[in-house]
Amino acid sequence: MKWRYATLALLLPAVVALAGCLGGDSIGRYNVLVSVDENYVDEHRAMPSLEVHIRGLNNSELSRWDTTSVSDYFASARPSDKTVVMKFGEDLPKGEQKLDRKDLVWEKWESQGATYLVVLANLPGVRDEKAGGADPRKVVMPLRVGCWESGPRGKWTIPISISAPPEGVVCLRRFKLSEGD
Predict the structure, then answer these.
(1) What dotted CATH number matches 2-171?
(2) Of 98, 111, 125, 178, which is most buried with the most CB atoms under 10 A?
């Protein structure tokens, strides 16, 4: 009998953490900080011009966005009012750009039931498509609070780095999308 309680006591934190990521936890609003690696330069030793698009996704949109070609997306992209666009380049302000957790776009994403965030970057020179999460120009992240490990910049901050491929778009804070991650 004692072993059952001991086993339950050991398993309970893992079950609670997993439930938070899979559906039992609240959706968070985050400061999304996007920066381009200072070593990312083009053949002229200048920072290349690139766009980063950020959008909240609900569960039904997730599978469509997982298979969306990043090249096709940017070739026909007409960002909606639910898409945040950040532009980087030699003649643009340097440094980090921020989507504030108080920005009104979070209300739009919440009203559509967003549970994920997708970040897409049109990295110059990258044309080969890779399925799902293998494309270096795209990262999908959960918005559920329980999916995130503590980060050095605080609970409500998601730092994103844009680097030359093969790294590409990288979330600098650890998260889980599902049970196996």
Answers:
(1) 2.60.40.4150
(2) 98
